[in-house]
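Supplementary Methods S3. Complex input for the alpha-D-galactopyranose-bound model.
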Amino acid sequence: MNANLIERTEDDFVAVFGRSAQGVAFVPGRVNLIGEHVDYNDGLVLPMPVREGTAVAWAPADHGEIAVRAANLDESDRFAAFEPSRLTETDWRSYARGMVAHLDLPPGTGLDLLVRGDLPRGSGLSSSASFCVALGRAVSAALGLDLDARTLAKAAQSTEHDWAGVACGIMDQMAVAAGEAGKALLLDCRTLDYEQFELPSDWAVAIVDSGVTRGLVDGEYNLRRQQCEAAARKIGVASLRDADRAMLESAELNDLEFKRALHVVKEIDRVEKATQAIMAADLSAMASILREGHASLRDLFEVSIPAVDQLFERIENVLQGRGAARMTGAGFGGSVVVIAERAALPNLERDLDRPVRPVF
Ligand code: GLA
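Predicted complex, serialized as structure tokens:
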């Protein structure tokens, strides 16, 4: 929980709406430790909440509409709770309207909401999932709906699909809605069952921003999903979760489908192995899994970029086996996640000469 952010959000609420908020919902962003591009293949993932996130201050209002102020942008929106109208542009307003639309509120619901976030946008830490779930949690608290993590996560995922045109999986939304600070969330994206794992106390998880903001990637993302689905169809399984390497080899996949599917099958296996490495407190096993995961995203799934690969190599050189890194999130820029001996972080920051932000 980010105390400064919450306080600022409460102050902004008073400044904008001229009265005090009745409550504030905070939802973090997430970093994914391992299990990339497998959620929409019904796979297993291992994300973790970060410190930064989105706060939404709320109070019921008698004007009969949903009034939202985005404090970071100095922009507002106001719309009907029941079947809000569509916007031509996909910006934060589409996310707000989409989320409210998916919560099925009664006509005439009136709420004042003030949103403030401290997640860098485009850095691969799920700012949009954090925004949607925080908004949903604020609405739920204001109206006494008591919506659980799965309901909020599904509404947020549908918002990405129907209001933003991104055919994402459910990892980000579940990670931010159900994840507990300082713990890795092992999530089965088919059943939505999950378990939380504390990391060994001498391990650190940290984020290094590549400085390249993700942009124009939705097309590439949706294309990867289509390639995986095409491969699953040719293999004759409902999703790549049900495939193994022998099945890939005997199916008539083209080169691209084979590479994409091989990444998915092996990445799901890596998530299971990473969970075992955490339980055994085996950092060198964890480091090998991260390295393999990065190479697979670079060579088989082809979602990394040279700036991120260089950062990965530099971290590898500095850590000298005391941990490892890999790109995290959808790819095409964004951040690198590092898992290393806690004692190795100060040197890493000095030698890289850029911020290394601990996750917990
Ligand atoms: C984005 C999507 C997720 C997931 C990751 C890649 O963050 O929103 O659903 O597919 O990319 O693992």
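The mean pLDDT is 96. Residues 32, 36-37, 39-40, 168-169, 171-172, 329-330 surround alpha-D-galactopyranose (CB under 6 Å).
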